[in-house]
Predict the 3D structure of the following.
Amino acid sequence: MALDKPYLDIPGTTIFDADQSRKGYWLNQFCMSLMKAENRTRFKADEDAYLAEWPMTDEQRAAVRARDLNWMMRTGGNIYFLSKLGACDGLSFQQMAGSMTGMTEEQYRAMMVAGGRTPEGNRVIGEGGDAQGPMSQSPAWQEWQDAQAQLALADAVEHAQEAQPQGQARITAAVFTSHVPAIGAAVDMGKTQEPYWKPMFQGYEFSKQWVKDNRPDVIFLVYNDHATNFDLGVIPTFAIGTAAEFEPADEGYGKRPVPTVHGDPDLAAHIAQSVIQQDFDLTLVNELKVDHGLTVPLSLMFGQPEQWPCKVIPFHVNVVQYPVPSGKRCFELGQAIRRAIESYDRPLKVQIWGTGGMSHQLQGPRAGLINAEWDNKFLDRLIADPAELSTMPHIDYVREAGSEGIELVMWLIARGAMADVAGGKAPKVAHRFFHVPASNTAVGHLILENQ
C-alpha cells in the first residue's frame, strides 16, 4: 500500500515484515512442527501426505518439495523457521545459506573464509553487485512462474473492464460500549425482552439502525482478551489480529453461537507496520480466538446475523495484569492508528470501537462496586476534553471505578483516533446511553461521528 518500505530495493534480501508474516504463517508453522522427532519421521515417510495436513498454498507446497529456500521466502517463509526444514534434511546453516546464492557449497565456504560477501554493489538493486542477477531463480521456481503468468494473463483479459477503486481509507466514527459477558448470554438465550434486560437493550435500538445506515467496511475493534488466548505464559501489552478469520472462543461455557469474524489481513498488516514505525510496540497475532470482549459489542450493534456484515480487525490491550498501558499512551496510540489508516490507499470506511468498562469490580470484598456519577463524568470528559482525560492516573480508575474499571483506557484509543484530536472539527454525538446494572457492571455506550 502507501506505506514506505525502503528495504524493498535491497538486492538478494527478503525482509520478514507483517505482510510476509501473515502470508507465510502456515508455511512457518509447518516448519516449526519439524522440531518434533515423530513429525520428522512422518514427513520423511510421505511428504505429500504430511504437507496436505497444513493449510498452505499450492505454491508454498511446491517450494517445499523443491527445497527452494528463496522461493519459500517469497511466499512468506522466514529463514529461522525454514532452517527447521533444512535441519530435517541434515543440512548445516552454512549449507542452507550457500544454497540460496547460486554458488556451490565449496565456493560459498571459500567466500566466507575469505571474509564474506562485500556490501559494495549490493546495497541497492541495479548497482550490479554479486548478490544480484539470476542466482535466486531456480528452474523449479521459473517453471511455476511461467505457469502462473499464463493464468494471470487469462484473468487480466477476463477482468480488463473492471475499474479499480481509488482513494484513501478514513475513520468515519467511533463507537464505545461495555462488553459484559452476561449481555452475550442474554442475547444467545433469548432474554433480551425480560424485565431485567429490556431497559439495557433498548439503549442499543438506535445504534442498530445507525450502524445499518452507516455501515463500515472495516471495524477496528479495541478490546481485552480475558485469559482466553493470552494466559500467564505470554501477555502482550498491545496485540493486533492479522489473520483472515477469527473463531469465537470457548470460555468455559462452550462457544457463543455467533458467526466467525472475518478480518482484513492487508489493512491489519499495514496498520501494524505503520504503528510500529511510529514507535509503538505491537504483537502480531496470526492465529486468534475472540472472546466476549469482541463478540458482545458486535451482538449489541448487529443483533444475531448469519454473518457479520463487515470485516473486523481485533486489537487486544492488556488490562488484566499490571503494569497496564497508561491512558496517555492509549490516547497517543489512537492517533498513530488514525495516521496508519489514513495512509492506506483504498477507499475504505473504517470505524474504531473502544470497548470494556464502565465502573465495575469483579474481585475481593469490594466486588460489585458501581460509580454512576464518575462514569457519566468520564463520558463528559471523553467527549469534550479527551486529551486532559488521558492524563488521569491508573489509581484514579481503580479507586473510583473499581479494579476492572481500568478497561476504560481502551476507550481512549478509539477517542484518540478521531479527527478533532488532529485539528479537525469536534465530533457529532450521535448517541449516548448509560445503564446500571448489567450483571456486575455499569454499561456505557457512545457513538461519535467525524464531521
Observations:
- The mean pLDDT is 94.
- The chain has 20 helices and eleven strands.
